[in-house]
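Narrative of activities, Objective 1.

The group set out to show that a structural description can be obtained from nothing but a protein's sequence at a throughput compatible with the screening campaign. Below is one input-output pair from the validation batch, recorded exactly as produced.
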Amino acid sequence: MEKLKLDDFTRYHFLSGIEFSPDGEHVCFAAHRANLDKNNYDSNLWIYNVKTDRYFQLTAFDQERGFIWLDDGEHILFPGIRKSQDKDKQAGGEVLTVFYKISIHGGEAREAFRLPLPVKSIRQVDSTRFLVTATYNPNRPDLDGMSEADKAAELKRRKEEKDYEVVEEIPFWSNGEGFVSKNRNRVYLYDSASRQYEALTNDKLQVYSLQLNEARTKAVLIGQEYTGRMERQNTLYILDIDEKSLRRLTPEDEKITYNAAQFIREDKLICLANEMERHGINENARFHIVDVKSGQRQLLTPDFEQSTWNSVGSDCRFGGGQPVRVDNGYLYFMTTEDFSSYINRIDIDGKIERITSATGSVDSYAIHDGEILFIALRGLKLQELYRFTGSDEEQITRFNDWVASEKSLSEPKHFSFESSPGVMIDGWVMEPVDKEEGRKYPAILNIHGGPKTVYGDVFYHEMQYWANAGYYVFFCNPRGGDGKGNEFADIRGKYGTIDYDDIMRFTDEVLKRYPDIDAERLGVTGGSYGGFMTNWIIGHTDRFRAAASQRSISNWVSFGFVSDIGYFFEPDQVGATPWEDIDKVWEHSPLKYADKVKTPTLFIHSDEDYRCWVPEAIQMFTALKFHGVESRLCMFRGENHELSRSGKPKPRIRRLEEITQWFDRYLME
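Output recorded for this entry:
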């Protein structure tokens, strides 16, 4: 068996976006692989024939990710820029989305239609009409219909405006999207026969979700109309497609956040909504029934406490899938329970049934007449396509089987312990792959982000690499994390207290259970919340010989007013603003304790990380240097908060090299 190499992730296949054909005979999904030469990811569409149990590659241009099935069940529609003249138009500043149509039985993709809009999603209404969502900004007028002279003048103005950025709203930027002031996701109706389109929502309404009814005559929208400041609460709207009319469904004074809304019947919606009254913005959503005519809302599951999304962490995904679906009178949805994610369903009476039972992570799934296919991480396997067989599951694809058969892997060993009375913490330890009895080994504590996410026993490339490099690796799910209900996840106003205690007690427990770990050679790392906690740890203990803080928070005073989510996240999670209680805000800031730090620390950050902006790392790095602590700051240009998970391949390699070399320097004898 060969040892796992740092860059082996460039050979993995990542799967996403599985969808059944209308007749249920095929599914389509996207497969992605890193391309080091181009420093990006090649993505192509694959087809699985349900009857023949065969799968094959459908497209080969390496840029096909999103798609929809057309009604005939024989063709796929997907966006792409394939022609050189279209690429030149985009390079010149023109906005363009071109859709191609391809038969699943072979042949070349042919252009179906094009829209002068930055299309985000598309739904087929009938043989010629489509509902699309696309980004609109009043400061960038539509070029469609302009004379050539006017178009040239507008493109020249846009080119000149690239030297400036004017913002008038919060959030004014968004991680992964850049500056977004005045941007709105609008709904348009496009007719491919007449090649005409028109906006169905105004330029103030931000549309987050669009779902059609079964007859495809109406759509339910989740959106928010705002000027100046986007709030956490949002609203349900009913769109009548033929009448081209939009009706607000929920009351003006309702304060609630809808996470999902689907037609369970023509006259009823089933919704996931967060009232935020008990546990703030991280409160788990509950199910509600909403009457399509009156807007009257009824809480369907008052005692439901589970998380309704997949929060199981891994650095071996690229792309996602639709998390909530309706099939045969049931709403299917995801839960994260303990440290695994599952497919569940609920009926209109509120009866909930868990469908899958295997531990791990379900990352994307599709349903047709009760038949379920899904993409999952299972044990030490990377993503594959599976079929749910009623009481078990069957692996269909073999994209990544080579990893377990060719590479040395370390199986995460799970244990639970009582951190404080009545509080059970799940944790894992990975041993070095070539561990020798009687030898002492260094160890790395890895802390997850969120904080409302979880670690599980699924494949994690960076941790497998460290185990292959001679390290013990250990990680846990402290309070603040997901999978154990609202009370466990609620650490509002407690950051750096009970969560820190859980992690330190877990470290003590690991050292007690694994005497081969050298307690004098411990490292600590983590990203986002894990970066915050890394910063916090080095200011409160010297037990770690080296640290690597990634995409971190160091100063809540600054974070709240530079992060794309900071203006609502900080008051909720810290429990104060600087004007209400500056001492409280500063008390929970790792920067306050920087003068106590002695641990050599590496900082990893991206300059387009608008979730935790780069000054958070700069402040902590500068403070440590000011106090004479050995420190290093590695900034990545053009990357964002997702560097470790979906960043470009070469920066991902450099990031892992930086962290590993830092730990090798201080922890390896």
